[in-house]
Every structure is written in C-alpha cells, then in structure tokens.
Amino acid sequence: MNPIALLLLAFAMSTDAFAAAIGKGASLHKPRFAEALRMGLIFGSIEAITPLIGWLIGKSASSYVEAWDHWIAFSLLVALGLHMIHEGLKPAGEEVEKPSRQSFLKVSLTAIGTSMDAMAVGIGLAFINVNIWLAAGLIGLATTIMVTIGVLLGRVVGSILGHRAEIFGGLTLIAVGGWILSSHLQP
Fold first, then answer.
1. DSSP characters for 145-169?
2. pLDDT, averaged across the chain
3. CA distances from 16 to 23, 113, 114, 179, 182 (A)
4. pTM for the whole thing?
C-alpha cells in the first residue's frame, strides 16, 4: 500500500469520529481547546488500537484465504464505505444522542462505536502488504486531529459538515478498496 493510499485510509477512518465530535462539540458551551484535545486523544488512542486487533484477527486466518485476500480487503472497504455513505445521508434528526457533559466513559464508548470500522479495516489490511504499526499510528493521529477540530467546530457547523464528512469518508474507503483490488489484479 503506497503512502498516499495509507494517508487517505487514515483520514477516511477518522471521518466518522469527526462527525461524532461535531455533535459532541455542539453540545458543549464554548468548547475549549484542552477539552477538544482530550477528546481527540481518547478517540485517537482507541482508533489506533482497533486496527491492530483487527489485523491480528485477520492474520490468524490469512493462510486460509491468500488467494482471495485482495477481494476480502476490497469487499470490506466497499461495505464500510457504503455504510458510511448511508449514515451520512441520514437526516440530522436521526442522531441518537448529544450529551451535555463529556465524561471519559461517554467519550470512550462513542470512540469505541466509531472505531469498529477501523477494526474491520485492520482485518482487511492483514491480507495485503502493509506496515500495520504505521497504518494504526496514522489512523490514530488523523483521528486525534480530526476529533479535536470537530469538537471546536461543533457549535459553528453542526450537522451540515458532519454528514458530508461521513459521505466523503465512505467514498474514500471505496476508492482505497478499488486501488487495492486493481493493484492485485494487474499482471
């Protein structure tokens, strides 16, 4: 996986957390940078760990599916991308929760919920030649940055940018999946 695809993947994985951070930022009264960074670090840490877990799961099964590994990675990324686009197209009124207090537990649970796609991506990455430590680190860093920005922008942009960010992330995942498939199908 080339560095550009890895960066695109990292930022695509951060868009759902970014969308959640906008909602959390909108629920705060004038969020400060320290609170935004705290939330960014929580999200980023969890988002960096989950692809490692997924990668370990995928590696344990890789010897059984090497002939189809690129199709598995492609299918997972396209499915996740389509899911993110679907979520991004939902009307803003369907949001489940906008807590007024950002406790560590609530932030962590939200981060775990938004990181399941990163775990699935980690499973897919186990089937291709990629440095999982670099990928996980980039995903965590991108998520930390995007969540910090999302919290600070939350009061200003609300649901408009949040939904568009998720759609963009889904399209990016589909593009990365297409790149993986095409690079493996070339003679």
1. HHHHHHHHHHHHHHHHHHHHHHHHH
2. 81
3. 11, 10, 6, 21, 26
4. 0.72
